[in-house]
Amino acid sequence: MNIAKSIITVATSFVFSTAMASEKSPKENSDWFLIASSQDNTRSYSGKAGSLEITNTKNGSQVAIIIGQIEDKTNNTLQYNKWYVSVDDCKKESGKMALLDISGEYIDSIDFVLGGNNIASGIADVICGAYDIRQKEIEGKGL
C-alpha cells in the first residue's frame, strides 16, 4: 500500500466535498478514490469523496465515518459499506475500524494501527487524517 503520500490530499477532498484525490479508482470520472488494494490486486478499497461525517454511535462514542466501496475484480462485483473509527482511537493512533452495512448496521470490526500495512490501517489513515483536517478548520487553525 502506498497510502502515506496521499492522506492529506484525500482528507482535504473529504472536508471540502470535492472529487480530487491523488489516486483515482478505475472509473476516472467518479467521486471514488483508491485507498488500498489487496496484495494479489483482486480487491480494491475506495472511499467516496465528500462523505466524511462526524457523528455518535448508539453508545455515545464520537466517530468519524466514510462511505466505502469494495471492488472484487475476480467476480466483477461492488460492495458498499460505511467504515468508521472512533475519535479516541484516532487520537491513540490504534484501535478498531468498524465495518457497517450501507444503512449503518454493524457488521464487524478490524484492528488498525495508523501507518500500518493492513487494509484497515490504510482506511483508518484516511478517516483519521480527514477528521484532523476537519477539526483544525472548525478550530480556525487552518490557513
Automatic annotation (TrEMBL):
Name assigned to this protein: Uncharacterized protein
Domain of life according to the entry: Bacteria
Lineage: Bacteria, Pseudomonadati, Pseudomonadota, Gammaproteobacteria, Pseudomonadales
Keyword Signal in record: yes
Signal sequence residues: 1-21
Keywords for the protein's UniProt record, in alphabetical order: Signal
Keyword Signal appears in the UniProt entry: yes
